Amino acid sequence: MLLKCEAKQCTHNDNKGNCYAKVVNIRGERARITDQTLCSSFADERIDSVAEFAEEFNAARRKATTKSIKCGAHRCEYNKSSRCYADSIKVNHDTASCETFVIL
To answer: Does residue 47 lie within any of the structural domains?
Structure first.
């Protein structure tokens, strides 16, 4: 269950596509297209207070997987009871949207 994150300057991203957030929250309750989804776990590493919080939040430094995802994109084919059941997902590098989103 692979989570590939390309979000630029996220404190959870090691810039090799690995996410180290303890929990990944994807928003998009009313989403009908990819751009209406958002990884709300994104924490801009350029903001010191956010980066400090994020470091505490993921102190174990374990790679996130699709099992780490809480999904609010209720119209997504891979969402079952607010969990992601895709074999892999990709987070967009510019917008932090879920590129795996497929509307039902």
So the answer is: yes
C-alpha–C-alpha distance, residues 53 and 97, integer Å: 22
CA–CA gap between residue 59 and residue 53 (Å, rounded): 10
Contacts of 76 (CB under 8 A, 6+ apart): 28, 31, 37, 98, 101, 102, 103, 104
Neighbouring-strand partners of residue 98: 91
Predicted confidence (pLDDT) per residue in 38-80, tens digit: 999 888 877 765 555 555 555 567 888 888 899 999 999 999 9
Torsion sign, CA atoms 36, 74, 63, 50: positive
- Written as six digits, the tokens of 78 are 């891979």
| Residue 82 domain boundaries | 2-91
**Does residue 25 lie in a domain region?**
yes
Q: What is the number of structural domains in the chain?
A: 1
On whether residue 46 sits in a domain, the answer given is yes
